[in-house]
Structure formats: structure tokens, C-alpha cells
């Protein structure tokens, strides 16, 4: 009995029971479902239209038939440069911006020339090594210009004057290699590799 009751229903009777759906109207000028609003733009002299800024230059077209959209991704070209990996760039960044990195290296150099031996991380010790050698090389020259260059880098001027006074007796016969790095146990807490750096 249930089978005969289900057989009496049909798609035509179901459609007649549903409310009528509005039919989308196409615009005759464009043949699409959305009107096209024409606007006039005033041309401004002196402004280039090639710069797109943060706006998408070529927006992604909407196509429901296409599932793979990898080939539809467009790049934004606003005249900027793209830098690849830093191959061959031997500058140690020490996880700091340039101004803080320079201040850190100046402070470490000042403390090493003041105390003769300090304990720091291996990366910082390797990075500050060339600056300590540079200061000693300036002191070996001994001219006023080199003294002012050293005063502009080392924080304490008393250390500069003492360095220029004693460097000839200590490093007069040595050409480079004024520092020594000795590895030690890692730092407790973050396990950072540590080292002693000292003047030879």
C-alpha cells in the first residue's frame, strides 16, 4: 500500500507545490546578469599608471568550471626588487638590526680592550674579532687621524689613549692576529655555545 502511495507523486506535482522562483534577467547590452557602469576618468598629467601599490594588478577570474587555479595566480609587479638567498654574504647579523648590532660590537670591543679577556657567545666573539684587530692596527699607526677614528668607535676615550700609548711595546712586531678565542662550556639555560676571547 505504501508503494502505491509513493508512485502517485511525480516531479511535476512537486514543482507545482513549490513557490515560483524569480528568473534572473539578462541585460541586452552585455549579455550578462550584471550591468556595466561606464565611468569617465580624468587624465592627470605627470602621474604614472604603472604603479599598482598594494592593489592586485590582475584580479583572479571566477570560473566554476576550472578546479585547478595554480595557473591563474598573478604576480604584483610594482617596480620592487626580489632578493634571493644570501649566498656568500658573510656578515654575521647576530639577530639584531644594523644599529643595535653596531652598538653591541662597539661595546664588546670596548670591554675587551679594557679588561683584556671577556666571556661571550662564539658568534659574537667571531664577529667582534676583526673590529678589535682594526683598533689595534689604528693604534699602531699612531697618527691624529687614526686616533680620532678610534675615538669614534670605542666608547671610553681613556682606553683609546692607553691603547695608543702601549700598543707599540706589545704588538710592534706582530702583524695581525691580536686576539685568541678559547671555547668553553655552553651557557646554562639556553645551551648557547660560549667562548672566551682575549688579547694575545
TrEMBL record:
Alphabetical UniProt keywords: Ribonucleoprotein, Ribosomal protein
Alphabetized InterPro entries for the sequence: Ribosomal_bL17, Ribosomal_bL17_sf
GO biological process: translation
GO molecular function: structural constituent of ribosome
Keyword Isomerase: no
Matching HAMAP family: Ribosomal_bL17
CC per GO annotation: cytosolic large ribosomal subunit
Organism: Amborella trichopoda
PANTHER family the UniProt entry points to: LARGE RIBOSOMAL SUBUNIT PROTEIN BL17M, RIBOSOMAL PROTEIN L17
The protein's name: Large ribosomal subunit protein bL17c
Amino acid at each position: 500500500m505504501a508503494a502505491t502511495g509513493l508512485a502517485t507523486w511525480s516531479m511535476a506535482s512537486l514543482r507545482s507545490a513549490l513557490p515560483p522562483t524569480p528568473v534572473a534577467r539578462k541585460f541586452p547590452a552585455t549579455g550578462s546578469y550584471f550591468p556595466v557602469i561606464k565611468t569617465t576618468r580624468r587624465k592627470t598629467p605627470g602621474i604614472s599608471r604603472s604603479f599598482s601599490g598594494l592593489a592586485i594588478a590582475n584580479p583572479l577570474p571566477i570560473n566554476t568550471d576550472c578546479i585547478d587555479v595554480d595557473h591563474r595566480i598573478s604576480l604584483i609587479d610594482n617596480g620592487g626588487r626580489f632578493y634571493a638567498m644570501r649566498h656568500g654574504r658573510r656578515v654575521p647579523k647576530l639577530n639584531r638590526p644594523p644599529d643595535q648590532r653596531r652598538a653591541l660590537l662597539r661595546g664588546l670591543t670596548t670591554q675587551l680592550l679594557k679588561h683584556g679577556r671577556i666571556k661571550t657567545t662564539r658568534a659574537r666573539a667571531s664577529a667582534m674579532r676583526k673590529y678589535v684587530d682594526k683598533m689595534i692596527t689604528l693604534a699602531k699607526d699612531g697618527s691624529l687621524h687614526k686616533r680620532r677614528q678610534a675615538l669614534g668607535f670605542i666608547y671610553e676615550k681613556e682606553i683609546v689613549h692607553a691603547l695608543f700609548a702601549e700598543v707599540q711595546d706589545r704588538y710592534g712586531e706582530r702583524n695581525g692576529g691580536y686576539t685568541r678565542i678559547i671555547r668553553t662550556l655552553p651557557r646554562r639555560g639556553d645551551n648557547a655555545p660560549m667562548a672566551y676571547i682575549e688579547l694575545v
